[in-house]
Fold these 4 entries.
Entry 1:
Amino acid sequence: MRFLRRSENAESASDTTTVDEETDDGRTPRGHTTPGKGRATPKRRDAEAGGRRRGPAPPPPRTQREASKLARQNRPSKEARREASADRRRRMDAGDDRVLLPRDRGPVRAYVRDIVDSRPHVIGLFLPLAALVVVAALIQVPAIQSYITLFTFLMLAVMIVEGTLLGYQTTRRARAKFPGENVNPLATGWYSFSRATQPRRMRVPKPKVERGATVA
């Protein structure tokens, strides 16, 4: 009888050792329960109030009238559109690359804009010259028309020369400033020429340098 009792005690000790070893190995022992998630499951009405509605999706519009009505319902208000447009305009004037047109993005184009904005250009008289040509066409005086035509041709020749020199200069300086960038001379020259033809107040993005400033 004593021998049997000792065997039972030995088996119990062996079982206890096995359970301890399993626990030390990091495996989940028997009888272990997973702790709760720490919060109560929300009720259905609370979940729906929070924006998580259950049930099938609404059917798509079947007619053009229903589609137009649904689009008007989902369209933002006029004030919201006006505020969004004003905010986008401010960011474009400030030179934010996230809202600028692809042609205006990047440090190279920002540098070219600073070069163009740092000094006045004869090309800036392009729009007033075009208006003068329209006025000359309306005036039925041959002498005045001839003088205006001659002046227009002279100004166009000066603008072409200045635009060519400006494009060459901006391309050369941009390549020296950004040696790792691919600066296309034709695209860079046309970009600087088109910006120089715009009046300073109408340029987008707005000029960040004053006239006469040194752009390194």
Entry 2:
Amino acid sequence: MSPRVVLVGPMGVGKSTVGQLLAERLGVGYRDTDDDIVAAQDRTIAEIFVDEGESAFRAIEKAAVLRALTEHDGVLALGGGAILDEDTRVSLAGLPVVYLSMDVEEAVKRTGLNTARPLLAVNPRKQWRELMEARRHLYEQIATAVVATDGRTPEEVTEAALDALELKQA
């Protein structure tokens, strides 16, 4: 068992919204590993970062992603930093992975780059750019398709993802 579609991309790009729409269009279930982590840990991701640090969170995230990749056969959305782990990237090889991309101005519009995002607490625009510089090549490395989300509605992004993967709707 493996997911029909895996969505990756930066925080705030719309993985959850597009993922739910894709799942509806394909007639499959939707799962988000960030939601899995919050449910299993009974606390927010921000709380995990504060209480235990990023490395502890990444270990929890890696386990959640690997579990979801073997348990879920619908649309799966991964947290923005999940692709940092090499084992996760290896596990995604051969799967239909869609990298949802956006530029910093779109990120500002969508998220306000607020402090609820633990990695963007200080100078959010600069930190977002630095995160993307460090991650963009990893997203591109594992992606079957890249779909730009800038200036598009979730429905338009969903349609573009279906077209890019040449998937038929349910």
Entry 3:
Amino acid sequence: MDLQQRICDRAGEFLFFAVTPPRQTTTPERAQEIADITRKRLDGLEPDGLVLYDIDAESDRNPAERPFPFTPTMDPAEYLARHFGELDLPVVVYRAVGKYDESDFRSWLTEQPDRVLSVFVGAASRETPVATTLSRAQSLRAELRPDLLLGGVAIPERHTRTGTEHLRLLAKQEAGCSYFVTQVVYDVNAAKDLVSDYRYECAARDLAPVPIVFTFSV
């Protein structure tokens, strides 16, 4: 059974290997070297899918001064197309949707092959100027590529602060999300609380919960 079908069926467990694309200043030759190294790692690990992150500055979410300046990275979709060739593995391509105007986003949606899944990421805060809102991106996906399996971001630490992250997950699920991927888990108890509240709220609404993928950094 392929990954997309397993997610839709909520069947079994699955393992992703996640990487951030190289910096925009990376030469094509070096980017290819990095991609080749990643492919060798994938051959040894045999994961169910590869995750390619889409990084945004998010200065509006956290105004604290960074220890290092933000450095833009390559577009994950372009990195996949240019440097991974015919990768025999499903790929979750993140989209920080606020960075892309609607015409570019429409083109990306219609061009994605069957092996691609996605996770849409909204703006860092309500004050962040965006080219495409998360709700609009979700609508475009439903209109143009309903077969493209959509995921959403889950933030356990935010649940500790607000107590409402599980409600965000349910809103995203109603907007078409078939799975969730957490940000890197720093607080195990926060992650457990989020999953528990999400499960109980699903039961209260007579909804089937969707898979949640936990992200760990080593």
Entry 4:
Amino acid sequence: MRNVPVDEVDGIDRAVLAIGTDYPPGHLLPRHRHRRAQLLYGAVGIMQVETADGSWTVPPRRAVLIPPETDHQVLMDAVSTRSLYLESSAVPWFPARCRVVDVSPLLRELLLAAVDIPPEYDRHGRDGALVQLILHEIRNLAPLPFDLPLPARTDLRELCEAFQAAPNVREAPSGWAAQLGVSARTFNRMFLAGTGLSFQQWRQRACVLHAIRLLSAGRTVTRVAAELAYDTPAAFSTMFRKQTGTAPSTFQPR
């Protein structure tokens, strides 16, 4: 199925529904939820998923697992998606929190093929076998550290979201503490309680995820390093590799 709202087909008696959808640049899917679990894969383009407790950056050719009944919004930047909507009974191992995952070449081809099978596919035929293979493949997907926890406290979350939009590796926690009218010690305790990370850890991860978005849009490593205020491209690349396990060039358009 292609460009079909899931609500129109959600009642079909099949464990897996596959839908392909194309989105223009800068398209925002406002906060919503699905009855089924969802695997949201971007064949091209980059996505940012946000829930009450965090945001997830999804580079091209990766996917995000979204649990059922989870309120979320998705910012699409010229994305062509392949979504699987999964009955909970078919994926009892599904994570309770969103998770970005790597997608193997085999699963990539399976996802591309799945959107072309009939919605009421023959469970015992070739299409049913394809669906079963997909379920086997997604159970063992490798998680990727592309999530950024966000605090529930409104004023602190606003600062976090503003930083996400224009991160700077040199930003100091003292400035945030002053804006919130608290001591540096109180701020550090508050930040750790709200995000599960120290300010420095969170700042670095926010910089990495922003860098992935810029690199995926075609920016050079040198330009991204400068935008994040790193002294040199080499210093940025070292940090990036340490955080993601791969070089920045991995995320540039092929």
